[in-house]
Amino acid sequence: MTPSPAPPAAVLDWGARLRLHVLEAGLACCAVEVSAAASRRLLAAGAVEAPFAEAPDRADVLLVSGTVTDKGLPAVVAAHRALPPGARVVAFGACVASGGPYWDSYSVTKGIGQVLPVDLWIPGCPPQPEALEQGLRRLEELVA
């Protein structure tokens, strides 16, 4: 049996530079897709041991996904305030962008962009795991 080839150096370097702090806001399909993307793409590639930062102050990216409620919004804002300078915000999915199919509910925030500066929007309901991977690669290009 031959050993698996090591991941390309660029993948390893990217994994060392860009850590994710995932904030899964509520119960939504997007949370499942974020988990699928992390396990299938980052962990399976062996590029990173732990694709998610342990705390917001150790993260380079805050990934907000799912339906953000007005009651849950302070937790999202607190996580954003705890980010180090230069950290980026990624909005993943229709619900976080506009409230999605719940836009007319009294308790749903009508888009995280009204509250936080979003650097990258990844559209979809829910976006596929590949969309997250492509979005993070695009974010890396913007940051580099």
From TrEMBL:
<feature type="domain" description="NADH:ubiquinone oxidoreductase-like 20kDa subunit">
    <location>
        <begin position="29"/>
        <end position="138"/>
    </location>
</feature>
<keyword id="KW-0411">Iron-sulfur</keyword>
<keyword id="KW-0004">4Fe-4S</keyword>
<keyword id="KW-0472">Membrane</keyword>
<keyword id="KW-0813">Transport</keyword>
<dbReference type="Pfam" id="PF01058">
    <property type="entry name" value="Oxidored_q6"/>
</dbReference>
<dbReference type="GO" id="GO:0015990">
    <property type="term" value="P:electron transport coupled proton transport"/>
</dbReference>
<dbReference type="GO" id="GO:0008137">
    <property type="term" value="F:NADH dehydrogenase (ubiquinone) activity"/>
</dbReference>
<keyword id="KW-0520">NAD</keyword>
<protein>
    <submittedName>
        <fullName>NADH-quinone oxidoreductase subunit B</fullName>
    </submittedName>
</protein>
<dbReference type="GO" id="GO:0048038">
    <property type="term" value="F:quinone binding"/>
</dbReference>
<keyword id="KW-0408">Iron</keyword>
<keyword id="KW-0479">Metal-binding</keyword>
<dbReference type="GO" id="GO:0009060">
    <property type="term" value="P:aerobic respiration"/>
</dbReference>
<dbReference type="GO" id="GO:0046872">
    <property type="term" value="F:metal ion binding"/>
</dbReference>
<dbReference type="GO" id="GO:0051539">
    <property type="term" value="F:4 iron, 4 sulfur cluster binding"/>
</dbReference>
<dbReference type="GO" id="GO:0045271">
    <property type="term" value="C:respiratory chain complex I"/>
</dbReference>
<keyword id="KW-0874">Quinone</keyword>
<keyword id="KW-1278">Translocase</keyword>
<keyword id="KW-1003">Cell membrane</keyword>
<dbReference type="InterPro" id="IPR006137">
    <property type="entry name" value="NADH_UbQ_OxRdtase-like_20kDa"/>
</dbReference>
